[in-house]
Amino acid sequence: MAHPPTTDFPLRIRGPLEGLEQARRLLEASGFQAETSEVVHLDQHPHALFVLDAAGTILYLNRSWREYSGLEISDCLGRPIRELLSFDPAATPGGGLCENAELHALHGTRRVRVAWRGDGEYMAGSLESIRAPNEEIFRLERQINELNLALEGCLLALLRTLLPSEVDHARRVASFAARLGEALHFGPHELEAVKLGGLLHDIGKTRLPASLLHKHRLNREESRLYHRHPEWGLEVVMDVTFLSEQARQAIYYHHEAYGGGGYPSGVSGEEIPLTARVVAVADAFDNLTGPAPHARMGPREAVSHLVSLAGMLLDPRLVDVFINDVLHLAPTLEEVNALALAYS
Predict the structure, then answer these.
(1) What is the pLDDT of residue 42?
(2) CATH homologous superfamily for the domain 134-342
(3) Measuring CA to CA, how many Å separate 27 from each of 44, 47, 53, 291?
(4) What's the pTM?
(5) When you count CB atoms within 10 A of the terminal residue's CB, does the N or C end of the chain come out lower?
(6) How far apart are CA 37 and CA 299, in angstroms?
(7) Which ranges in 80-200 belong to alpha helices (H)?
(8) Are 233 and 201 in contact (CB under 8 A)?
(9) Which of 31, 30, 59, 63 is nearest to 46 (CA)?
(10) What is the pLDDT of residues 286-299, one digit of tens each?
(11) What is the spatial distance between Cα 40 and Cα 130, in angstroms, rounded to a whole number?
């Protein structure tokens, strides 16, 4: 007798038969004939298995049936399968597949997938549990979050190795960028892009001479080299397949100026990708308030300085959202005017 497709009916696994000769004969009669090197180990199979006669009466159940239903096997043998399932396989004795059946378990109903085959005299089949959609989505989201955390940990370890002096700055920029993204109601993919883009925004500095990394004033040749680090950063991450295009854009365009004249491409305004404009605001604020000797502004002074950069270097809308919805530190008119006089 020919075997049924194993993709629809996953009964055949390696293992000893261990005294289940009657079930084996019933399965063979239904077309599930075990080969010498790969026999059916029914009682240890993770799915709930059943063997029925032509009328749909239960002749055999494996141990997993009790785990699925909470019912004693001895109480189920001899009963019609339709008393335990929301449909009757005997109505389609040749075989079939039901993707969304209900098993009447001891403590309520349980959604299951049912596959079965028959030869007119016997039927053999299996049940497997179906997770509720919300539970499955929650499980996948949790796995993705765990992978993202592990990924960020690997990137931080890489930064500590390649740019040990920049790793704390990178973490702060990633955090500020993510908070600004949340205030802008970014979706999960955009949030991940600005977070990873912020974390890796200066990865191109790995190609700069170490002497330039802490130098505040650069000569013309040093400036030319420094201005290449966004371009080099894109080259460094080119083969990092898990980085989205939006994250790559944040790395490449974060030094472009909203009013024009930035680098490396010289684009301006809305031509600058949004993720890059977000990272630019986060980068500017941390450069003003971070531990570097040329920074160390207080938050309010830094906020006033951000206002002075809005429209020239930074997207004014994003500066406004960052100050009011992320920092909650809107400057007073006096502070803005004092800063304007200082830089005039």
Answers:
(1) 65
(2) Hypothetical protein af1432 (1.10.3210.10)
(3) 16, 15, 11, 74
(4) 0.55
(5) C
(6) 73
(7) 133-162, 167-183, 188-199
(8) yes
(9) 63
(10) 989 877 655 578 88
(11) 23
